[in-house]
Structures are given as structure tokens and as C-alpha cells.
């Protein structure tokens, strides 16, 4: 009698584990196309030597599910990016994340910077918003 009850408990545990696994796998596959889109998001090269002074705002709609939508403000002085501010975001990241990412852009005067480890997709989304702001700052546009 005890072995039947033990067997039923083991079966119930296996079923629960299978349901949890299926649920997680379903979520993974559901978001796969959005993650693929974000991973392949192109960040164009911007000629930082051709930027006019001023403050410019750019946004990125966040991809297929709008999970990484953001709006950034960039300040250019004496032909250099001197400040970048995150105005809006749908994905809440700590300020250290944006400070590090935007600090890399300011230091290198380039959008071709390494993404933040563990936040590659969000890094690319923020860089895309920044690219859109810098496109408005192009002298020849």
C-alpha cells in the first residue's frame, strides 16, 4: 500500500516537473523571434566629427514586443558628445547600467562599443535610441 502511494507521489512530481519545463520552454520559444530581432539590430556608424552642437532626442520603439523601448537625450558641445541621459525606458535597468554604457560612448566618441555583459539586447536598444538622436545632430542632414 505504501509503495503505491509513494509511486503516485513520484508520478505527480514528474508531471509537475514536466509542466514547469514545458511552460518555460514555451516562453523561451515565444520570445525567440524578439530576442533574435534585438540581437541582430544594426547600430550604424556615426561620424562623431560631423555633429553640430546642441541637445537632441532620439528614441527606439523597442522591437516586436516593445520590451526595450527607450528615449535618450544627447548633448553635444564643441563637436563632442558630452552628456547622454535616458529619458524613458520600458525595461527597468539600474542607473549603473546606463552610466556604464553611455560612459563608453562618451569616452570613445563612438556607438561601436561593447554591450554591457548580461544585457546585450538592452544595450543594443539603447544604442539604437542614441543613434537616432545623433542622426538628428549630423551637420550634413
TrEMBL record:
Organism this protein belongs to: Anaerocolumna chitinilytica
Lineage: superkingdom: Bacteria
This protein's GO CC annotations: membrane
Chain ranges of the FMN-binding domain: 65-137
InterPro entries according to UniProt: FMN-bd
A Pfam family recorded for this sequence: FMN_bind
One term of GO molecular function: FMN binding
SMART domains with a match to the protein in the record: FMN_bind
Protein name: FMN-binding domain-containing protein
